Amino acid sequence: MKKLKLAIIGCGSITKHRHAPEAKQNPNVELVAVCDKNLDHAKAIAETFKVGNVYDDYKKMLKEIKPDAVVVATPNCLHADATIKALKEGAHVLCEKPMATTEDECRMMVETAKEMGKFLMIAHNQRFNEAHKKAKEVIQSGELGKVLSFKTTFGHGGPESWSSDRPDTWFFHKEAAIFGAMGDLGVHKIDLMRFLLGEEFVEAAAFVTTLAKRYPNGNLIDVDDNAVCILKTQSGAVGTVTASWTYPGSEDNSTVIYCEKGSIILYADPKFSMIIRYANGQKAYFELDTMQTNERQTKSGVIDEFVDCILTNTPPKISGEEGLKTMKVVFACFESAKTGKIVKIDY
């Protein structure tokens, strides 16, 4: 079988620790080129992963290499441009989260993929976690009855400890990142809850703020470092999504789903990735997998899924349309934080 020619745009930490190694591990992939405006970063990835072509201009790379597929792992402000240009050059695209920085950009990405007949997938890796997949099965089975409420959290000490351009990372600068912790971490949990609950959010209320993170000059960063959001689903369930860059010590990447006949606890225990607490007091323990962290990267399954979709001509489940629905909730949370009002989400 002819290998899929894959190129990566953006050579930061997510490419170093996830996309490049997962591409090299896939037997159906040939990693043919890497690109970053910081040529030293691109060269470092190329040397580590034995990639022959190195660029600092993705437009040039796309025209010269003509890859079958592209991973977009740039700063957020470039997601839409890099994705659209790659699609127009005939490549399928896997785009990192957050999908894009405006709803119009998201729509343009979706429309371009349709126009070009190419797949667009968004890299929401938490859908591939074994405990999350198992929890979705339990919820869909009706074993625990109707979902009433939930709380989900993604918080750690901040990107400056992990980013390739630390400590004054692009994540802290609004012109590159647009969003802070909400777009970096909160978007994952919003997408996860849409996946787990199998329904859309229709209302959002949120506090999105900057409390602690500072630039080297002592000023607070100009993107958010904390967000707490209250969301309501179509069926009336209400719950919270929390995102933070100011959690000292160990990461919190946990979720609890409260149902009529019990609750599901995900990634809150060091040994058991899923625990079911039944209303009668009984408990069931599941030792399925461990949550990936910045310090402990395991195979996410995202690249394998993306490649499999292309090779089997199967549209990705985490499509551009799915990414847009998740981003609608993100944008609603920012609007609520700005206006101090509950925001209805229109699909």
TrEMBL record:
Signal peptide: none annotated. Pfam families: GFO_IDH_MocA, GFO_IDH_MocA_C3. Coiled coil: none annotated. It comes from the Bacteria. Residues 133-264 form the GFO/IDH/MocA-like oxidoreductase domain. Residues 5-124 form the Gfo/Idh/MocA-like oxidoreductase N-terminal domain. This is Gfo/Idh/MocA family oxidoreductase.
